[in-house]
Amino acid sequence: MSVALPSITGVRLTPILIADPPLLNLSGVHQPYTPRLIVEVLTSAGVIGLGETYGDAVYLERAAALSRELIGMSIGAVNAVAGLGRGADALLNDAPAASGLRGVLTTDKVRSSVVSAFEVAVFDALGRHLGVPVHTLLGGAVRDRVEYSGYLFYKWAEHPVEGASSDDWDAALDPAGIVAQARKFLAYGGFRSFKLKGGVLPPEQEIAAIRALAAEFPGAPLRLDPNGGWSMRTALQVAEELAGTIEYLEDPTAGLDDLAELHRRTAIPLATNMIVTCFDEIRPAFDRDAVQIVLSDHHFWGGLLATRDLAAICRTYGRGLSIHSNTHLGISLAAMTQVAATVPDLDYACDTHYPWQSEDVLTERFRFTDGCVAVPDAPGLGVDLDRAAMARLHERWKALPEYRNRDDVAAMRRADPAYRAPAAPKF
Amino acid sequence: MSVALPSITGVRLTPILIADPPLLNLSGVHQPYTPRLIVEVLTSAGVIGLGETYGDAVYLERAAALSRELIGMSIGAVNAVAGLGRGADALLNDAPAASGLRGVLTTDKVRSSVVSAFEVAVFDALGRHLGVPVHTLLGGAVRDRVEYSGYLFYKWAEHPVEGASSDDWDAALDPAGIVAQARKFLAYGGFRSFKLKGGVLPPEQEIAAIRALAAEFPGAPLRLDPNGGWSMRTALQVAEELAGTIEYLEDPTAGLDDLAELHRRTAIPLATNMIVTCFDEIRPAFDRDAVQIVLSDHHFWGGLLATRDLAAICRTYGRGLSIHSNTHLGISLAAMTQVAATVPDLDYACDTHYPWQSEDVLTERFRFTDGCVAVPDAPGLGVDLDRAAMARLHERWKALPEYRNRDDVAAMRRADPAYRAPAAPKF
Known about the structure:
TIM Barrel
């Protein structure tokens, strides 16, 4: 008695533009709109699975090519979906800049970022078809809610562009502004730990912001992430000043050897989503003890099974694991929450940009309580698509070609035409 | 809309004794009967899941204790089942002897050997309940059959015990006998690669047997496994003589540093199921490059998810993976085949003792074609319990307390009362 699962009959790719606040980072500022790609996997049983990933042109092209290979595959063939097109590793760029905040971009990283959305969509379809949540297909949840940290950003009150998207989070350009933002996060979702996106202001100002947070929220775990923008000297100085105040530093410098030396000299735990971004990058980093906590991102690690693989490697090699975030919507938050629920030793609150996103393609937005998202227990990812909302955001994508590729440097240039991508290291 | 999966309402533990041929190894000889434990997980939906593991007293005791903790758990909670009782690591023995051919035995290894049977049984129940094969719950098969090697043993024609179990495999005590046995394996299941259990006869005789196999089956991958019974000097000599003839040597010596030196000096690939037998043992072995191929055993690694975790670690660290076997029946062969089917880079034929077992608790025995087992596609593991057969084997367990713990030294002493466990190294 053999079992026939539904097969994949089609793939719908819908690029969209979503409103994004003027959040500042190492490279520049977020655009008023940022691209995402919504994936729908259609099946012979009528069930549709949802996935989401980066929406820049390079991802759209690869998604269009790989989606053809999905047709006819069984929705039970998740490992095969995740392996589609594996192998290519040519370099696309060689410097972490603009949308390259995830490190060196290779064609294989683009591939894994695309197949991860397919993998999530196939898991969603399989879960819906079988009537079980995705976490059951990953061995089952070991917790019923997943904690996220409040992700603080230096930001402007508004975009320097006529008619751009707006938000109600106010400006935050100094310690008082960051503390006020954290209070707003607390009111929004009860967050119990905070991460500050650094690399924006001179380090002494960011140190002051962290100290202000520590004074305002005694005992709350705090993190600082300058996206590799500090020199070794700066990183050493920050590490010394914030030792004992901070839970970990994330990507303080851009090089493996620097991170290893920094940890050796200061003992401060170092996290990364820039130096270790794929399986090939694990061994060199662990061998040198350059990284103590890996921030996984199911989008670029290749999916939910790949995230579980990474968790097993981190556990075995005595490294911490947490979850990284790039601008994302609720489909991805559901996927992140589903997989995080199944990892036994998730020692740190995960990252999410979700509170910054005022738009979504879901019929119901996720809420945070005590900084946590309840693990969805409905079939599949546990979320439903709002087609009208998606159609509106796709219309925007069609109408605004200038935002179809995320470019934080170009966005900054709209405020300051003389602006250039910062030298490395920036500080 | 939340999903309620059936919960576990009971666990049946049935120790059995199965006929085992007089297979020789480093320690002595297999007993006429060897203990196994059959696990049945009962659920609120009526579905029953099957598992199998070691049946010695120490496992039975732990299984009885841990099985109580299963009651009330959801059959979707596989990760939680695999984590039951995790943490204890006290030493049970400190020398690889008798039934300790899997290396140093700790309470945590006994725990993982027990929870693996629970995990498999819960996967079987979940698969049956959802109507999908277990491999679908592991991300899906990437192949439709799994290759096993023909597992050759020096053996006597019969046990030195009145009224013991018998077999029709003849004696094999020299190269001609081993070649004849290999031919029989070929006729039995079309095996295309062979592994010889070594550490029995002086190394020059085992080298001669390997050479005879190479002459008889040109190009067939061959392996030799003396269970760590050789000195460094002997291992070096064998490695030099068999370089180019053998696919890999398995556990030629007992120590990590020796293996590392052996590989450094001879470049011969080394496999192990004795030095790396749990996640804590991976890092020291990989750091020293003492092991190039890890032979996983879902029984003692802690289950099918743990086997996939190990596969991810091996892939990331550039190590080969294959599957180890200890005397087992069809429930475990099904479990091994289900998980092996989902591992993308399974580069070596797996090991199995199954052809040596004339008895089983299944309604239908597995067959080998071209050395391969077809991946079951029926719900769950894809096997059904023959309760009458299990009851008979359980009656034997009750009737023959002298065989309830595997002891290859004691079995040898029945033929030679002066026999003692060999010194280490034996050769």
